[in-house]
Each structure stands twice: as C-alpha cells, then as structure tokens.
C-alpha cells in the first residue's frame, strides 16, 4: 500500500487527511508514529516556505511522501500580522489564549468595519524523486471584540464569519471542515493528486 506522512502531531488534522486518502488506498501516518524525529525549525518568511521546508526535510529523511501545512491568521489592520508567527505571536511558549488576547488588545480601538482578516493555509506535498507541489486555501472574516464559542483551537473563538453570524469556534467540526482555510487547501491538493493519476504516491 502507498503511504503518506502528515507532518503534524495534531490528531484532528490527521483524521481530516485519513478520511480523504484511505478510500484511495493510501495509508496515512503522522509524526506520532515517528517520535524520534525532532521538530523542524520554521525559518521561512511565508507559509509556503515553511510548509515546503517541513515536507521536503521529512520526505528526504524517511524516503516516502510527506504532506506539511503551515497556516495562520492575517489581520488587515495589523498589516498582515500575526501571519507566519501566529502560533508564537505572544511568545515562544505558543499559548493560544495569550496569542488571541494580544490580537484583541492591538485591535481595541479599531471599528468593526476595519477588522477584516483571513485564515491562510499552505500545503506542500513532497514526494521523493518528484517536484514538490504547493497549494493554498483561505477563508475571510472579521475579528470579533471578544471570544465566542468553545470549539476549535487557536484564534477560532475570535474569527467571526458574518454570513453565518458565528465564530469559527461556534461551528461543528463538519461545518468547519467544509469551509475552513485548511479544508479549502485540502480540496485544491486533491484536485492536483487526482489529475496526476492513481499511481501518484507509488514509489518507483
């Protein structure tokens, strides 16, 4: 059976990919299955660069296909911040609550109509002997003035979707998966994989 590694320790992300690849006969594993691998330093200046760094490093080390993602929040009033620093915006301790509180603090005096933002996700698929593929997905919204909802993680409780009148943290897992930045990026990746044919993951 063909295999692919998802370069993450996030069980939720792994489940998303398993639901897509298992019907194609592709076995999905994650960094949970390779505890000896150290975390790869994200030194890129864009989401795409970081995703490629992670995917190509692991694909070379393990000699099997690897999918890596890098994603985050981009706030227009903050000139695109937190951006690639989303996970560590309030410090290297990577605390979700501290990160979102910092964003709320910086937007205290910003009116609703100027609180536009988007979640951005870049995916890189690195396969030994083939050129790395990158795709991306986004979702547009506004930054709320306070937290709403208990689902999701990261900045979800303050990312408001006007058309649904809810934050990302108020959506079910199914709703989030169908419209999120990561869900949209996965859809784009699947288009590329299907166009390449069924033997895309088979090692020669």
UniProtKB/TrEMBL annotation:
Instruction: Tell me which residues bind substrate.
Output: 8-13, 71, 153-156, 176, 181-182
Task: Give GO cellular component annotations, separated by semicolons.
Answer: cytosol
- Tell me its cofactors: Mg(2+)
User: Any one Gene Ontology biological process term?
Assistant: nucleotide metabolic process
**What reaction(s) does this enzyme catalyze?**
dITP + H2O = dIMP + diphosphate + H(+); XTP + H2O = XMP + diphosphate + H(+); ITP + H2O = IMP + diphosphate + H(+)
Q: Which residues form the active site?
A: 70 (proton acceptor)
Q: How is the cofactor bound?
A: Binds 1 Mg(2+) ion per subunit.
Ordered alphabetically, the record's keywords are: Hydrolase, Magnesium, Metal-binding, Nucleotide metabolism, Nucleotide-binding
Name the Enzyme Commission number(s) assigned to this protein. 3.6.1.66
Q: Tell me where the transmembrane regions lie.
A: none
Positions binding Mg(2+) in this chain are 41, 70
The record ties this protein, via SUPFAM superfamilies, to: ITPase-like
Superkingdom of this protein's organism: Bacteria
Q: Which GO terms describe its molecular function?
A: dITP diphosphatase activity; ITP diphosphatase activity; metal ion binding; nucleotide binding; ribonucleoside triphosphate phosphatase activity; XTP diphosphatase activity
What family does this belong to?
Belongs to the HAM1 NTPase family.
- Indicate the quaternary assembly: Homodimer.
Q: What does this protein do?
A: Pyrophosphatase that catalyzes the hydrolysis of nucleoside triphosphates to their monophosphate derivatives, with a high preference for the non-canonical purine nucleotides XTP (xanthosine triphosphate), dITP (deoxyinosine triphosphate) and ITP. Seems to function as a house-cleaning enzyme that removes non-canonical purine nucleotides from the nucleotide pool, thus preventing their incorporation into DNA/RNA and avoiding chromosomal lesions.
What is the name listed in the Swiss-Prot or TrEMBL entry for this protein? dITP/XTP pyrophosphatase
Give the organism, scientific name. Gottfriedia endophytica
Q: What is the lineage of its organism?
A: Bacteria, Bacillati, Bacillota, Bacilli, Bacillales
């Amino acid at each position: 059976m063909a295999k692919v590694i998802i370069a993450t320790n996030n069980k939720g992300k792994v489940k998303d990919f398993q639901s897509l690849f298992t019907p194609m006969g592709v076995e999905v594993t994650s960094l949970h299955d390779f505890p000896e691998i150290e975390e790869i330093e994200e030194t890129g200046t864009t989401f795409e660069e970081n995703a490629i760094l992670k995917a190509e490093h692991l694909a070379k080390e393990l000699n099997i296909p690897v999918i890596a993602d890098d994603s985050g929040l981009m706030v227009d009033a903050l000139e695109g911040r937190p951006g690639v620093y989303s996970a560590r915006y309030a410090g290297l301790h990577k605390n979700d609550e501290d990160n979102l509180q910092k964003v709320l603090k910086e937007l205290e005096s910003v009116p609703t109509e100027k609180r536009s933002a988007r979640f951005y996700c870049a995916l890189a698929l690195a396969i030994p002997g083939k050129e790395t593929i990158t795709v991306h997905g986004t979702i547009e919204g506004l930054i709320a003035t306070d937290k709403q909802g208990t689902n999701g993680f990261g900045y979800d409780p303050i990312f408001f979707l006007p058309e649904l009148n809810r934050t990302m943290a108020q959506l079910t897992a199914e709703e989030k998966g169908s419209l999120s930045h990561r869900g949209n990026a996965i859809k784009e990746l699947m288009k590329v994989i299907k166009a390449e044919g069924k033997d895309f993951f088979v090692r020669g």
